[in-house]
């Protein structure tokens, strides 16, 4: 197996360009990419020895990365057996997740539009501008990066609204990690980028209704996109 090179891993959002990542972060990114792209399938066994050989590293950073992924609910550790990839969302779970998001996130976007300052708008715009378009031909690395960036953008909007409990509730759901493990298609990410811009435009204009409506449309379209992909299974 070939040794994984630092240049093959996505840079963490917001980090200095070209700055080498810690080994554990690189391994985390690689495993996350394999989970997101379904190279490691839902419910599939994760062999630490195999990953260590594939990446050319010891077991230590593999175990550390898997521990972080377990905290996000993406992998499960079974005593005496080892790690397995978490199951995929079912249609009923997708419906429940999107229903909850529709109750919380439009309100948070609207509230953010009312209270955000100029620096907060700049940070949101930078987040949106920094989001990549995944290539889907790199083993899942760029797709994993997109997912992290998407989650960070939504979290920044929730933070800007100033409701810590709502933000924490969404954060604990790990919404984006679960959604983007569903069968994916390039239009899922391309359309999301356009919808994010509409949300940020509403927030930047301090237009509560525009921000709420844009976020509501975005979540409804996410629901439709992923729901249609599940229906095709």
Would you mind describing this structure in some detail?
- The chain is mainly α and 233 residues long.
- The protein is built from ten helices and three strands.
- The chain has a three-stranded antiparallel β-sheet with strand order 1-3-2.
- The protein starts with 22 loop residues before the first helix and ends with a helix.
- Residues 1-20 have low confidence and may be disordered.
Tell me, what is the CATH class of the largest domain? Answer: Mainly Alpha
Strand order of the largest sheet: 1-3-2
The run of helices and strands is HEHHEEHHHHHHH
| CATH second-level architecture of the largest domain | Up-down Bundle
| Main sheet overview | 3 strands, antiparallel
Q: What's the count of strands? A: 3
Proportion of strand residues: under 5%
Tally the structural domains. Answer: 2
Instruction: Report helical residue fraction.
Output: 55-70%
Report how far the terminal alpha carbons are from each other: 32 Å
* Radius of gyration computed on alpha carbons: 18 Å
Summarize the structure.
By secondary structure, this protein is mainly alpha-helical. It has helices at residues 23-36, 48-55, 59-71, 91-115, 118-130, 141-161, 164-173, 175-179, 186-204, 208-231, and strands at 45-46, 75-78, 82-85. It has 2 domains: 6-85, Winged helix-like DNA-binding domain superfamily/Winged helix DNA-binding domain (Arc Repressor Mutant, subunit A), CATH 1.10.10; 91-231, Four Helix Bundle (Hemerythrin (Met), subunit A) (Up-down Bundle).
């Amino acid at each position: 197996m070939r040794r994984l090179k630092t240049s093959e891993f996505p840079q963490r959002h917001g980090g200095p360009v070209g700055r080498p990542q810690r080994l554990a972060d690189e391994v985390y990114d690689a495993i996350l990419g394999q989970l997101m792209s379904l190279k490691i399938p839902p419910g599939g066994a994760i062999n630490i020895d195999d990953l260590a050989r594939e990446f050319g590293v010891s077991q230590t950073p593999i175990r550390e990365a898997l521990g972080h992924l377990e905290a996000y609910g993406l992998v499960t550790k079974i005593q005496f057996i080892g790690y397995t990839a978490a199951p995929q969302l079912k249609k009923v779970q997708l419906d429940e997740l999107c229903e909850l998001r529709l109750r919380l996130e439009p309100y948070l976007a609207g509230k953010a539009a009312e209270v955000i300052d100029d620096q907060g708008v700049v940070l949101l715009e930078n987040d949106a501008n920094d989001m990549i378009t995944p290539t889907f031909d790199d083993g899942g690395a760029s797709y994993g990066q997109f997912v992290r960036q998407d989650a960070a953008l939504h979290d920044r909007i929730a933070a800007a609204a100033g409701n810590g409990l709502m933000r924490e509730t969404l954060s604990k759901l790990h919404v984006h990690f679960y959604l983007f493990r569903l069968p994916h298609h390039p239009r899922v990410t391309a359309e999301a980028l356009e919808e994010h811009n509409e949300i940020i435009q509403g927030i930047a204009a301090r237009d509560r209704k525009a921000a709420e409506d844009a976020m509501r449309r975005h979540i409804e379209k996410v629901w439709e996109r992923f729901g249609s992909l599940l229906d095709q299974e």
